[in-house]
């Protein structure tokens, strides 16, 4: 015999929310098990009621219950018949045919049985309607709880997610003596990435470069670089990480105009001179269940340089930067978000 496990069907969607962790997104399936059980019970009651109607006994006489009609003529035994005379046979009239006419329109079931069946049908229908409303309310409450849980999870991710910013562009001068009594004057730059979030940035891919003498915005292929140029790493919460270094000569950086150690000879970077661009990006993921890909882009334009004399060795430099027109953005606010995430991974 088939048995329908109603308890498991009805309670399983509700217990599913308690078993799953609150940090996980919850899907609230519609609890249809109770409706199926009630519909089956209601159908069973109707089927039994109609079956009782069909199987109800009828008071109409059957073929076997017909009464035979005795013949009216009976010969007397004292009658003497002569020799050669045959006994007269009285005609036997045919038995009257009784027509079998069952009364199919009349229900002869007891009155209490009719009232009991009607009450059972009404009760089953009422329970079905009531449980439909209860099931709908439960489904609605489950959806509201799932939406609230998703909102809390998103709020938690916003607070706890990693967030990488550019902390600065540190540099130092490197003078290398050459065999011809000349000096190779280079400047080594780095870009410091800082994770200001509360969780680590994993699968971090980063890139940093310098292009001198740029008179217009960077093309996308220049900004992305090549796959051989970027590196893959991770960055913990509240930590900094320098990427680079990128070494360039003073002649290369200032378009063939090397810096002098005399501050009076240093000319400010004006609009007439092409200005170098310092740029890069970092693509990384968070550590949550649905790992989201994050992007940080930065671009700085060198606008001025000052020399600070030291008693010994080359003078210190003081660079002045401003942000570029583009490529200073994060996540989906970057116009090239899809392109750079596909390029990184």
Would you kindly provide a written description of the structure presented here, covering whatever features stand out?
This protein has 345 residues and is of the alpha+beta class. It is 30% helix and 27% strand. The protein has two domains: 112 residues, no CATH class; 181 residues. The strands form two sheets. Strands 4, 5, 7, 8, 9 and 10 form a six-stranded antiparallel β-sheet that branches. Strands 1, 2, 3 and 6 form a four-stranded antiparallel β-sheet that branches. The N terminus is likely disordered.
**Class of secondary structure makeup:** alpha+beta
The total tally of domains equals 2
How many distinct beta strands? 10
Query: What is the count of DSSP helices, taking H or I runs of 4+ residues?
Result: 6
What percentage of residues falls in helices of 4 or more residues?
A: 25-40%
Strand content: 25-35%
Mean pLDDT: 75
User: Secondary-structure element sequence?
Assistant: HHHEEEEHEEHEEEEH
Largest sheet entry: 6 strands, antiparallel
C-alpha termini separation: 57 Å
Low-confidence stretches: 1-30
Shape: rod-shaped
Rg, please?
Answer: 50 Å
């Amino acid at each position: 015999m088939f048995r329908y496990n109603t308890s498991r069907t009805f309670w399983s969607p509700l217990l599913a929310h308690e078993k799953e962790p609150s940090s996980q997104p919850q899907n609230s399936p519609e609890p249809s098990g109770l409706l199926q059980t009630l519909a089956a019970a209601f159908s069973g009651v109707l089927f039994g009621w109609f079956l009782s109607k069909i199987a109800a006994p009828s008071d109409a006489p059957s073929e076997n219950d017909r009464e035979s009609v005795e013949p009216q003529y009976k010969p007397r035994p004292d009658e003497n018949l002569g020799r050669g005379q045959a006994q007269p046979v009285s005609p036997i009239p045919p038995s009257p045919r009784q027509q079998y006419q069952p009364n199919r329109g009349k229900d002869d079931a007891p009155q209490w049985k009719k009232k009991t069946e009607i009450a059972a049908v009404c009760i089953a229908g009422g329970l079905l309607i009531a449980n439909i409303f209860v099931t709908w309310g439960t489904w609605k409450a489950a959806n509201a709880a799932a939406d609230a849980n998703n909102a809390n999870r998103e709020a938690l991710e916003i607070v706890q997610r990693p967030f990488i910013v550019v902390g600065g562009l540190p540099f130092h001068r490197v003078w290398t003596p050459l065999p011809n009594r000349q000096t190779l004057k280079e400047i080594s730059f780095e870009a410091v990435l800082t994770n200001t979030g509360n969780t680590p940035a994993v699968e971090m891919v980063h890139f940093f470069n310098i292009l001198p003498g740029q008179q217009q915005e960077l093309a996308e292929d220049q900004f992305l670089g090549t796959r051989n140029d970027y590196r893959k790493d991770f960055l913990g919460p509240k930590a900094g990480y320098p990427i680079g270094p990128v070494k360039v000569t003073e002649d290369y950086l200032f378009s063939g105009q090397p810096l002098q150690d005399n501050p009076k000879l240093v000319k400010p970077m004006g609009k007439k001179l092409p200005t170098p661009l310092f740029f890069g990006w970092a693509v990384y993921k968070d550590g949550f269940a649905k790992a989201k890909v994050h992007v940080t882009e930065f671009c700085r334009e060198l606008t001025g340089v000052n020399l600070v004399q030291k008693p010994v060795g080359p003078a210190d430099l003081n660079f002045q930067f401003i942000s570029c027109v583009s490529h200073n953005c994060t996540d989906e606010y970057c116009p090239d978000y899809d392109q750079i995430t596909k390029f990184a991974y």
